Amino acid sequence: MTVGAHRLALLKDGAQTYPAMLEAIARAQRTICLETYILRDDRTGRRFAEALVERAAAGVEVSVLFDAWGSSVSSSFLDGLRRAGVRPLAFRPLELSAPFGKVARRDHRKALIVDGTVAFTGGLNISDDYAAPEDGGAGWRDTHLRLEGPAAAELQYFFLRTWQRAGGAPIDGQRYSYAERRPDPAVQIVSNDLPRRRHRHGIREAYRHAIERARRRIFITNAYFLPPLRVIHALSAAARRGVDVRIMVAGTTDVPAVLLASRTIYGHLLDAGARMLEWRGRVLHAKTAVIDGVWSTVGSTNLDSQSLRMNLEANAVISHRGFAGALERMFADDLAHCREITVAHWARRPLWERAASWTAYLARDWL
User: Fold this and answer.
1) Which CATH fold would you assign to the domain 198-366?
2) Which of 20, 32, 123, 169 lies at a CB distance of 3.0 to 4.6 Å from 142, suitable for a disulfide?
């Protein structure tokens, strides 16, 4: 759909996202910038590697930035990319001598930018976990966004700045268009950026301000839900003033400690009138929100301390009724896979679960 100066497409799971990304890669003429927290040497990783190698052979400048902590790739996999002309770069390889604060700060963004005009961002990494079962994957539930327009240049700007600060190879500046980096209030890229501390809370503040302005409904899907007190208080206040607050979290998760810690804060939100929904089935990994049928966001950011304080993240923030409506319909479809946690359910938790939840919550800043 057309939103401001952009064309947007909401993508569900790897079944829709990966083919769209691979098609965009195949059409690249000048540059490909791929940034991911997880890059794996598995079937999906090899599919992307083959696509990137093909375009590098055609003369496209292909740069791949992956997080050293989150990824699992062999030296032979990386050597194969380098020999073919692809430029892979590990973000902050683990070094025993590095300060803890530097090691703890990871690149959690998921972005693909092709020719500075077509881009993707959202929750999907490059791994079989997200691929459709018919493609040999685990079919994790996730949401991604394809966009064409000025926001693509914005994502490219953040990629290139991080690439250079991480020690990446020199870029061919003539291939990249910087003139098109211009704001569009309908579609904005909000990033937790690397160099300046004051830019680290942009995503948290975007969420908080939108929640504080809400008047009718707030629908949040967030796989790892451990927000700071400011956000918890904003959600509780919204529910108390009559806003329909629904929060969908991962009841089926790859990080059980986060779910246990999340359950500690359910009581505060339930008492305020919010509704808590735990996803059942495939692992839920999405990070989206839609407020009052107008404001919405799709991105890489979990509502937890690591994402909101430490990691490099990127979210698209869209102000458009049509797009918000599509995201609300996706949320409604996902409700069929959820179990609602009521005040009665929460009060009946066994003692062992209460103790485990509280213990996990004490470590919330590092989960």
Assistant:
1) Endonuclease; Chain A (3.30.870)
2) 123
